Amino acid sequence: MPPAGEDVREEIVSLYVKQKKIYARAVSGWFARWRWATVWATQLVFYGLPWLEWNQRQAVLFDLAARRFYVFGVVLYPQDFIYLTGLLIVAAYSLFLFTAVAGRLWCGYACPQTVYTEIFMWIERRLEGDRARRMKLDAAPWGASKVLRKGGKHAVWIAVALWTGFTFVGYFTPIRELGASVLGLGLGPWETFWTLFYGFATYGNAGWMREQVCKYMCPYARFQSAMFDRDTLIITYDAGRGEPRGTRGRKTDLKAAGLGHCIDCGLCVQVCPTGIDIRKGLQYECIGCAACIDVCDGVMDKMQYPRGLVRYDTLNGLRQHLSRGQALRRILRPRVLIYSSILVLIVAALFAAIALRTPFKVDVVRDRGALARQVEDGYVENVYRLQLMNATEVSQRYRITARGIDGLAADVAAAVEVGGAQARWVPVALRVPPGPAAVAGPGSHRVEFVIEQLPPAPGAATHQLVEKSTFLVPR
Amino acid sequence: MSDFVSSGWALFVAVTTVLSLVACIALLVIASRRRVMADDNTTGHVWDADLRELNNPLPRWWMWLFVATVVFSAVYLAFYPGLGSNAGSLKWTSQGQFESEQARALERMESVYAKYRAMTPEQLMADGSAMAIGQRLYLNQCSQCHGSDARGSKGFPNLADADWLGDGTHEYVAKVIKEGRNGVMPPMAAAVGTSEDVRNVANYVLSLSGSPHNAAAAQLGKPRFGTCAACHGLDGKGNKAIGAPNLTDRIWLHGWGEQAVVNAITNGINNAMPAQGRLLTPDQVQVLSAYVLSLSRPTAVAAAK
Description:
The complex is a heterodimer. By secondary structure, chain A is an alpha+beta fold. Chain A has 2 domains: about 20-355, no CATH class; about 360-475, Sandwich (Immunoglobulin-like). Chain A is built from 18 helices and 18 strands. In chain A, a hairpin with a 2-residue loop joins β3 and β4. Mean pLDDT of chain A is about 90; it is low at about 1-5. By secondary structure, chain B is mainly alpha-helical. Helices cover about 50% and strands about 10% of the residues of chain B. A two-stranded antiparallel sheet of chain B has the order 2-3. Chain B has a two-stranded antiparallel ribbon with strand order 5-6. Classes of the chains: A alpha+beta, B mainly alpha. Chains A and B meet through β1, β2, β11, β12 and β16 of A and β1, β4, α2, α5 and α6 of B.
């Protein structure tokens, strides 16, 4: 509060502030190398996967129009969305696990926002120069050189963004066809829209928004405090070692001068992509990129001080002055162990579920218009439609039988053929002779359809599905 | 067409929407300036010794996005319905969208059906993919009454047998699908005689097909059968011209057994199939009729299985 007795300052400020552009200084070091490794790894997968072929089709293809999802040899139907749920659960638990261990590893290394911003900032550095040059260029008046540099940068950004959008659409429409239609200027309206949309999102988020996404839009920043605990490795500034900060010569006696190791060079602030000062402690803006660690270690080396003034350490480690070994041993604590075991279980269950799944699905839809009918000689018939969905890419033949009531017989062809990745409706009538029908009594009775896959070659493994339904005997 | 009983509601919706949009912008403007309350970017108040509330400014891009959403809303409401009963300048309706989607679908199917238009029913029955289309059309349109296996049930004819109430040609089937059919038998009890007579005639009718019957009653009913012969023929073999069924086969559309026949004689029959012509295009009717016919002619069908 302004002190009483003085004029209360009636300063009026705008509640909407133009963002201050952050000129992050380039940095190299151990963590920077790891960041680039993950950029390469994730982008090789993202850009490369649609170009792989399998079984004369694209290896990874999500054909929305035909509602089939191909992941290498596996053909998935919309009914298989549970596997996606499983995958999301695995993703969530992995996130909890490595965040509990070492903080915002996702944000700093693997998040698409961070990866694309890295790529775009690298392009910017190549075309506009390093930090000081970029600041000078922005302050300079518009001239030929500035237009060329900035225009060139945006052109390259847009090219990369369009390629990214094109690749994204290539997961849903076979990418080679897509490429051919782009070259032939015959891209369909929806493909065009999504390529441009995704491209625009990439260009906007990685080129213009950058840290604004992390600071204001992404919810992950806000709930990280729920995922950390006192033994989480976070990027910290060792204030006990660093303070009081101040410039000094290399040979100065620190004790005599009353100085800590921090020389107040401000490099940790200059390299930070979100523009914070890590010396104030962990802040929600910090994405865990460890650029400040890299740069400070470099400065410590030059000053011939030990590394680690800014380092990964835990809250308990700092407060209780734990050694590196002790802090690292705390990683094996109940929270981490529980996350790990749940994760292992779910990953194993997911793999097992996919590996052991029956390669076809059956849905039984009983006729509702005519629930039951009596035909000549007193037989009782119920009619059903079975949808057989073949989840392999070769034609399969199936035999349909039924059980549950004495004398129950299925009136259907001996073998039904369904093409690869096709689904087919097969009408089936179940009939029961009058005697057993009378014994079973009027009303609804549980019956089961047994659908056997006929072996493609003698002795080959087959699968069988049992689907339940009801058989109605009219009064 | 208004969704509400009174047009006042439409006006209420329109006014409320516009006022809300204006209020959003007004809120943005009103909240745009604040008095500085303390030196450290907080509101100045301290709770519990060290708890402060920061009052950070919003980024400008966020504000412009908010404005963009309001502008988008205004543009959207100008083009599309939303302001009460205003239809919007594009005059979009969900019905119109449905109709244009249907028209597009028909266009896409045109190349397939053009091929089928040139084929005879026999050729269609031999064409596997035509029959697959026929089956899907059948399952969509006809299976609700005639059953998924086309064998019908009481009151709904079995399409998989060769017993047709008409002449059973492709034209006949197509006509029935398009225009529907009304199978009418007048109540004949008065013409036959007493209820005892009716029972006797019923047994005679059952005897014609060799179904279980009371032989003595059948003998008594035989002279009375003349009343029925007018439509069903002296031999009981039916009359396709007027749709009178063949009584000498074991196909009982309206139930089997003595009581069912007695009911038919006493109450007559009025069996209606609704016209499907407005739900199907002529091309679809052609393929569908061929499919229906193929059900009773298994030798003519290609291995669609």
